[in-house]
Amino acid sequence: SRKYVLGVHMRTHTGERPYSCVRCNASFVTKYNLAEHMRSHTGERPFSCVHCKASFARKGSLVMHIRTHTGERPFSCVHCNASFVHKTYLDRHVRIHTGDRCFSCVHCNASFVTKFYLDQHMRSHTGERPFSCVHCSASFRRKENLVTHIRTHTGERPFSCVQCNASFVQKKYLERHVRTHTGERPFSCVHCNASFSQKCNLKDHISRRHKNEKP
Question: Given 128, 162, 194, which residue is the final one in a domain?
Fold first, then answer.
């Protein structure tokens, strides 16, 4: 109803967050947001992809994920040809053009293009680790680290290679593996003609071969 919508909106002015988590200190403006948050504790992922085995705690995350299958990128930058699966990613990208880093840390000189990254950074000062594993005592500063960790318990490896039977717990590991098929070596040395498939190998090369050289 309009009255409910107005009540929720007014909380953005008053700061009222009447729905509190029983497992941590988090609180929320709406009951729906609390329910979403609780899944970070329970590990529940009720929204499943029809194209692969991926599942998500939030419907919005599923919608974005499906676009990786369909190729849909409905949010386009007016400054360049970049396009994105989510408006949040577009807003963040646009700040690369404008130079706007409007979210500043009160403890150091760091500043960020989104509040999300500021909140993540703040945990490096506070030590807060709000994302807890339901299977063991591990806890994490970032939700995506918890999701990856839980896969060590469940055995889930949702990122599969299309050229062989290999599968991985994180997309970055799949991307690194795919280079063993394609031969791509995107990390190039600024001192010589050497190139590498992994950034860590480039760093190792520079430390061993060009330790005292300046680029």
Answer: 128
